[in-house]
Every structure is written in structure tokens, then in C-alpha cells.
Recover the amino acids of this structure.
């Protein structure tokens, strides 16, 4: 991809009388000040130009948009759209046309004035206490709390008014621009093409004013990128049109998009997702094509024996113990189940923990029983979650379903997979079993976040290592992660020395502390810790592995718990190279490759102890690779 | 000067480092153009080639950032100084102007002066250790005095961007640019202390570089 500066193009290609308008249409950050202070008769010494009417400049904005993304997108073709009067008209979204421009851009707008009410209502929880105190105080005849409540309410009102008066949004040049603040100003720019979700919330009060709360979401983060509380139906309409108009991937743009009818459901989530186009363009406007569900091709079934093995090998039991203890204490179950009066009949209840500790045999027995119980609980957890696990392919989606009592099922669009991680805990590894975790980007807007997370974290909870290549190939065709074929780069040569030095320092401290407490006997635990430290440092320096392959980045780490993760060039979001003062001394760096949704797999790609020069070169290689591999979806 | 008005037409000054041409209007007028003072562009700028050679050159933050940081340092110092002065005097009246009071006061003043001198000497050090570059690969930022880090945002990964100005920054014509990606640990990357015009152009360039279509 060649880099072409759009502004320069403007200056070159577009007639000169146009460019000032083009410039002006982007509101400067200092814009508010001028406008807001006018009623007070204050003229700022330099008044920035007001944004021009949008349609004057928009054709040229479209052209600049086009020129900046011309070569990157071949799917921009003339499209046929439904015109305002119900006729089909051909329209090329790229070639500037006054109609298109006018439909998409609009001037800076305030929120609807009823925003003041809804904004106050949204802060009502904070206001509840002072108001309650105010009432109580007034009831008891003291006005002190009443005054406090008034002040609190006054502040909330001021804040709301301030927010209402200073927040404005507009669409210019295919970008949503949100201006906020007066003293600390913020201007947020969201390219409309990046907006994935427009969520509308409308409750009874909203309906009275014929408004709705609008949340615009992009792929970044979990919070909505812009919350517009509240907009009128007309405003929502033009916003929607602008957003859909920008997604010109041969998609229909219903020029007369749906009115938000007052009788609609209270919460309208309209995902601008991949397959829900008909939802957006307005109910009833576009007909849903007949959708034939592809057949599910089974890929993997997990027999219960594997789950038992996983339960035995893993330490999920601790989780169950934690949950059990939590409920036990929360409801005082011990007292309820075993009342104190029973002690006279059941002698074992008279025993206390301190009595048990005197008897070594009892302690040993207890530990063994507890361990066994733990394992049983672990098995139960695995069986409960994953009994009848099935993985299948349906079209381009991977479908997972599992569960003993309540079955969950989830489909993972293949192209949403960001990250693949193979985990091999020590004991499971002895049996040549592993688990595969994946990460997908962005929720589908559904509420079952926990279940989704669970299914992602435990994508394939347990499977034989021999099956891994076959399934990797299914998850991402052509993907191979066999460790022998990868050209690995290890930690820097001096890492072992460095880690050993650290281990020695820690060991000396450990021995000193244990000898202080247990005198000569302290040498035993201290020595054990020291030995482990040294061994661990030795192994750690060997276990770290990094590789850049033809598809992306592979990272391996862990001694007891081996993890092997990979991501792809087009999934790299941000690269980071960091160097602590210690790193500088040893001439190493840490390379971090960040992807979307890098939480659940618990193995972020952070490669420490890389040789500084290698890391820098690799950083630049990855930079280049990430820029070249543009994410191509759809 | 109305931001983004006269200068924003001439983005790719690959021949010239950004900040030297933009951040200091007087200087760039003096140095680069001896005719029309409205044009802040250097004469070296040719009619632009269609493909600009990758510009792998680093730019510092705007030097005015140091001044802003020092004004902030001044405000903090004033608050701390007045606060501790009041504290010392009240302490003296309450506990008597004894020898202990004198030592405490002297220690406090010493600590305070160390802190203040640090506050005033830090901005230029910090300024020396931040630099950024923007090219057809992406935005790269290097920063950190002791803990150094280099952050790179590849093009087309950008979701949206914020441009923020506090009152002091507005007075000095600076801004903070925050870019957001779909990443997990580093979903947002900040670049504080850019010249306002530079920040605006950087944002526009970053946002418009990407084609239409989402990232994840």
C-alpha cells in the first residue's frame, strides 16, 4: 500500500477555492468557546471560523475520502439503493454527489433538550442519598439536611446543564465528531465505518418525549465510544443514515430508513453486524433473503474418560472448594447443619482443629482425604461443564456445545479468531493431553458474556496432543504449530546467568529467613527453596521461545504449565517494546504483541529477555507485517 | 491564531521535521518563507509526488510542552509552599518556636525545595526522552527516561481518536492526542504535548489512512 496524504491531494487536485471550505468543515477544538460565550457579550480575541453548512463542502470531502482509500478497497462499486420515493436508483457512494453528501453530513447539533432530564435521571443514584436526607431532615424539622440536599441537587443540575450546553456532535466527512467540555476540551473523532453497533434504549419516559438514548460502539474496549443521551428520532435517523451510508460495501442504504416507532420494543439493540443487515436498514424495508442453514460437520467429541482425566490432572477442585466454603460461611451452614447441642451425642464433633494437629496420623489421613475430595470435585466440575462436548463446523462458524445439566452452545465465526493458545499442564502433559483456548474479538452484543467467556477460555477443554494438528487446521486452515518445524528464537544468551543471579539472591534471603526462624532446621526448607529457585531459573531461560512464522507470531513459555500461543499479522493491534534499567544493563528487551480480546487465554504475548538488537529488528519487522496485512473480513 | 486554518493544507513535509515547521510559527515564518506571512510552509515543499517516500524520521514533542509543564510545576510549588509555610507558622505558634520546630521546619523546607527543583528540572528531561514518528507503517512513539518503551500502532488498526486540550495547553497552542485500537492491554495510546496543528493533522492522517471497513 502506498501512502498518499489526502490533504496534499486536495491541494493538488481540487480547485483552489474549495480547500478553505474543506478545512473549515472540520470544527476546530476551540469552536465552542466562541459560540457559547456569545450570549454573554464576550467576543474572543480570535474567533475561529464557524463550520460551514455541510452540503457546501461535502462533495469535496467525499473526494478526499475517496482519494485516501482508493487503492485499499476494491469493493466500492456503484450500488443500487432504494430512493426516498421508493424507486430503485443507482448511486455510487464514492463519486461525490450532492445528495449523498447532504444525506450523510450534518451540522453540529446539541442533544435534545430533554437530555437534561435524562442525564439527571441517570445520576439519580448519586442524588438519592442527599434527597432522602433532605426529606428526613425536613420531616424532623431541621433544615440543615434540606439545604445540603438542595446544594447537591444544584451541583448535579449545573453539571448536567454544563454537559448539555457543551456537548455537540456532528458528522463531517464520514466521521462522527463529538465536542465536549469548555475548560478541558475534548474532541472525539470516530470514523463512521468503524461503528459496529448502534444501540438504542427507549423506556416509557423516552417515549413520551419521542427520544432515545443512543450508544455507538466500535471494536475498541468494552464501553460505548459515544453515548448520546438523548436524541430525537429525527436525529437518530440522520445518524443512522450517515453510519449506513458509510458502510458502502455493496450494502443497501435505505434512504427512508425506519422511523423509531413509539410502539417499538423498549430496548432496541440494532447490531450493525455482519449478518443482520436487514435489522439496520429498517424493519420492513428490505426483505430477508431465504437463509439456508449449512449442515454441521462434526469435528470433535470429548468422551467422559478424557474429562475424568482432565479433572484428575487439573486443579479445578480448588475452585469448587472455594465456592463451597463461600456458601458455607455466607449462610452459616455449619451452625445450621450441625447445631452445637448435637455434640453430646456425636463425639467427633467435640474434636477441635487443635486436637487434630497433635496427631500426625490424623493429619496425614485428613490431607489424603482432602486431596481425594479435591480431585473428585475437579472431575465433577469438568463433567458438569463439558459432558457431551461437541465441536463442529457450520459453514464458516465453529460450533461448540457442552454441559451436563444446562447445555451451552456457542458459535465462533472463524474470521473472528484473534489468538490461539495451547495449554499443557504438567500432569495432563504426562498423558499427552492438552487444551486449546481461543480468543475472539468483540461480543455479539448478547448478554451471556460469562458463558461466552467460558466457551472461549475452554474452547477445547481437553484433547490428545496427537489431535492438535488436525483441529488447528480446522480452526484456521493451513495453520501448523508443530514445535519442531518452527524456527525458534530463544532468550538472550546471558539470560541464564541473569536469572541465576536473581535466584541466588532470593535463595540467600530465603535461607537467612528460615534459619532465623528454625535455626539449623531452617536449612532444610531454605535449601529446598534455593534448589528450586536455581533449577527454575535454569529451566526458565531455556523454556522461553519466540518465533515469527509466515502467518504471525508464536510464543511459548512455562515450565510446569507449558503454554504455546500464536496470533496473526492481521490481528496485531499494537506492538510494544519495553526496556527496564535492568534490561538495559543486560542488553535485552521485552516484546509485547497486543491483540483484541487478549484476556481469556491467560497467555498474553509478552516475550521477555530478548536480545535488544534482535527485539528492535523484530519490532520493526512486525510493524511492517502488521501494516501490510490489513485485516480483511466480510 | 485560529487552529488548523492556514497551515493544515500542507501535511506531508517530508523534507522538514514537522515540529520545527509548525510548532513555532514565528520561527517558521522567519526561516522558511520571506514573503507572505500567512503562509507558514517552507519553500522547499515541491508539488507533491503521488507516493511519498516513507519518512522514518523522529519528531520531538513541541518544546512549548516544557513551558506548560513548568507552569504546572509552578502552581504545584506555590500550593505546596504556601501550605507548608502556613503549616510551619501554625506549628510554631501551637508547639512553641523550639529547637525541634526549627529542625523540622528546616527539614521540611529542604525536602520541599528538592521536590520543587525536581519538578522544574524534570520537564526538559522528559521532553528529551519522548519522540514519535508517523509514516506509511503507522504511528510509533518512544518514551520513558528510566523504563523505556516503544509503542507502535500499525495503520488501519485505529478505531477512533480523541484530541484534548486543557486551559494551559490551549494558551500555549498544545494538545493531547489519544488513539484507540481494539487491543486489550493497550487499547489507547496517548501522545501529550503536541502542537495543536500537528495533533490535528496527525489524527486526520491516522484516521483517513485506513480504508473503509472495520478491523475486528
Amino acid at each position: 500500500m502506498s501512502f498518499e496524504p489526502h490533504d496534499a491531494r486536495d491541494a493538488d487536485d481540487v480547485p483552489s477555492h474549495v480547500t478553505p471550505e474543506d478545512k473549515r468543515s472540520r470544527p476546530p477544538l476551540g469552536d465552542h468557546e466562541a459560540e457559547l460565550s456569545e450570549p454573554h457579550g464576550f467576543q474572543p480575541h480570535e474567533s475561529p471560523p464557524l463550520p460551514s453548512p455541510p452540503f457546501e463542502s461535502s462533495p469535496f470531502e467525499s473526494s478526499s475520502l475517496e482519494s485516501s482509500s482508493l487503492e485499499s478497497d476494491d469493493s466500492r462499486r456503484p450500488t443500487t439503493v432504494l430512493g426516498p420515493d421508493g424507486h430503485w436508483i443507482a448511486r455510487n457512494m464514492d463519486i461525490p454527489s450532492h445528495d449523498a453528501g447532504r444525506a450523510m453530513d450534518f451540522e453540529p447539533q446539541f442533544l435534545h433538550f430533554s437530555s437534561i432530564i435524562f442525564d439527571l435521571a441517570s445520576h439519580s443514584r448519586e442524588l438519592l442519598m442527599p434527597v432522602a436526607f433532605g426529606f428526613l431532615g425536613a420531616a424532623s424539622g431541621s433544615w440543615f439536611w434540606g439545604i445540603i440536599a438542595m446544594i447537591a441537587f444544584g451541583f448535579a443540575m449545573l453539571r448536567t446543564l454544563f454537559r448539555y450546553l457543551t456537548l455537540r456532535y456532528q458528522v463531517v466527512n464520514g466521521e462522527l465528531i463529538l465536542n465536549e467540555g469548555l475548560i478541558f476540551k475534548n474532541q472525539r473523532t470516530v470514523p463512521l465505518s468503524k461503528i459496529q453497533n448502534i444501540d438504542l434504549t427507549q423506556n416509557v419516559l423516552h417515549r413520551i418525549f419521542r427520544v432515545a438514548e443512543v450508544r455507538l460502539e466500535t471494536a475498541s474496549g468494552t464501553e460505548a465510544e459515544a453515548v448520546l443521551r438523548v436524541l430525537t428520532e429525527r436525529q437518530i435517523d440522520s445518524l443512522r443514515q450517515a453510519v449506513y451510508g458509510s458502510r458502502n460495501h455493496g450494502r443497501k442504504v435505505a434512504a427512508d430508513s425506519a422511523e423509531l416507532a413509539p410502539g417499538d420494543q423498549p430496548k432496541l439493540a440494532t447490531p450493525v453486524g455482519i449478518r443482520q443487515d436487514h435489522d439496520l436498514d429498517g424493519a420492513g424495508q428490505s426483505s430477508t433473503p431465504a437463509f439456508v442453514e449449512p449442515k454441521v460437520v462434526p469435528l470433535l467429541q470429548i468422551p467422559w474418560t478424557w474429562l475424568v482425566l482432565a479433572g484428575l490432572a487439573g486443579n479445578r477442585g480448588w475452585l469448587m472448594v472455594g465456592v463451597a466454603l463461600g456458601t458455607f460461611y455466607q449462610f452459616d451452614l455449619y451452625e445450621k447443619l450441625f447445631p452445637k447441642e448435637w455434640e453430646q451425642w456425636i463425639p467427633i464433633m467435640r474434636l477441635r482443629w487443635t486436637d487434630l494437629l497433635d496427631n500426625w496420623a490424623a493429619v496425614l489421613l485428613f490431607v489424603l482425604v482432602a486431596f481425594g475430595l479435591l480431585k473428585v470435585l475437579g472431575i465433577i466440575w469438568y463433567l458438569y461443564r463439558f459432558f457431551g462436548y461437541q465441536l463442529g463446523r457450520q459453514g464458516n462458524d465453529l460450533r461448540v456445545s457442552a454441559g451436563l445439566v444446562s447445555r451451552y452452545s456457542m458459535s465462533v465465526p472463524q474470521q473472528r479468531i484473534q489468538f490461539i493458545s495451547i495449554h499443557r499442564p504438567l500432569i495432563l502433559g504426562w498423558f499427552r493431553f492438552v487444551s486449546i483456548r481461543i480468543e475472539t474479538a468483540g461480543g455479539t452484543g448478547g448478554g451471556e458474556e460469562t458463558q461466552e467467556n467460558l466457551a472461549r477460555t475452554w474452547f477445547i477443554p481437553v484433547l490428545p496432543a496427537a489431535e492438535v494438528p488436525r483441529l488447528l487446521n480446522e480452526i484456521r486452515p493451513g495453520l501448523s504449530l508443530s514445535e519442531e518445524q518452527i524456527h525458534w528464537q530463544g532468550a538472550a544468551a546471558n539470560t541464564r546467568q541473569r536469572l541465576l543471579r536473581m535466584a541466588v539472591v532470593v535463595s540467600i534471603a530465603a535461607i537467612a529467613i528460615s534459619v532465623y526462624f528454625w535455626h539449623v532446621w531452617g536449612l532444610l526448607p531454605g535449601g529446598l527453596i534455593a534448589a528450586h529457585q536455581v533449577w527454575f531459573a535454569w529451566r526458565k531461560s531455556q523454556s522461553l521461545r519466540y518465533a515469527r512464522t509466515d502467518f504471525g507470531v508464536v510464543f511459548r513459555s512455562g515450565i510446569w504449565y507449558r503454554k504455546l500461543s500464536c496470533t496473526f499479522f492481521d490481528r496485531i493491534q499494537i506492538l510494544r517494546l519495553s526496556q527496564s534499567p535492568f534490561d538495559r544493563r543486560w542488553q535485552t528487551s521485552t516484546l509485547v504483541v497486543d491483540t483484541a480480546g487478549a484476556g481469556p487465554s491467560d497467555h498474553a504475548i509478552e516475550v521477555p529477555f530478548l536480545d535488544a538488537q534482535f527485539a528492535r529488528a523484530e519490532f520493526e519487522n512486525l510493524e511492517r507485517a502488521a501494516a501490510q496485512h490489513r485485516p480483511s473480513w466480510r | 491564531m485560529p487552529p488548523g486554518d492556514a497551515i493544515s493544507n500542507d501535511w506531508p513535509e517530508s523534507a522538514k521535521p514537522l515540529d520545527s515547521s509548525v510548532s513555532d510559527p514565528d520561527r517558521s515564518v522567519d526561516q522558511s518563507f520571506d514573503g507572505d506571512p500567512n503562509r507558514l510552509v517552507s519553500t522547499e515543499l515541491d508539488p507533491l509526488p503521488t507516493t511519498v517516500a516513507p519518512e522514518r524520521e523522529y519528531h520531538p514533542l513541541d518544546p512549548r510542552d516544557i513551558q506548560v509543564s513548568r507552569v504546572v510545576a509552578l502552581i504545584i510549588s506555590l500550593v505546596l509552599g504556601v501550605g507548608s509555610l502556613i503549616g510551619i507558622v501554625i506549628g510554631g505558634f501551637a508547639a512553641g518556636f523550639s529547637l525541634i520546630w526549627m529542625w523540622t521546619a528546616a527539614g521540611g523546607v529542604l525536602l520541599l525545595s528538592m521536590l520543587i527543583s525536581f519538578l522544574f528540572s524534570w520537564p526538559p528531561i522528559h521532553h528529551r526522552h519522548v519522540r514519535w514518528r508517523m509514516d506509511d507503517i503507522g504511528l510509533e512513539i518512544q518514551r520513558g527516561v528510566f523504563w523505556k518503551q516503544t509503542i507502535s500502532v500499525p495503520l488501519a488498526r485505529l478505531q477512533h481518536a480523541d484530541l484534548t486540550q486543557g486551559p494551559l495547553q490551549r494558551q500555549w497552542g498544545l494538545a493531547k492526542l489519544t488513539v484507540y485500537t481494539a487491543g486489550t492491554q493497550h487499547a489507547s495510546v496517548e501522545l501529550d504535548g503536541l502542537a495543536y496543528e500537528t495533533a490535528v493533522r496527525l489524527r486526520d492522517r491516522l484516521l483517513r489512512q485506513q480504508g473503509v471497513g472495520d478491523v475486528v
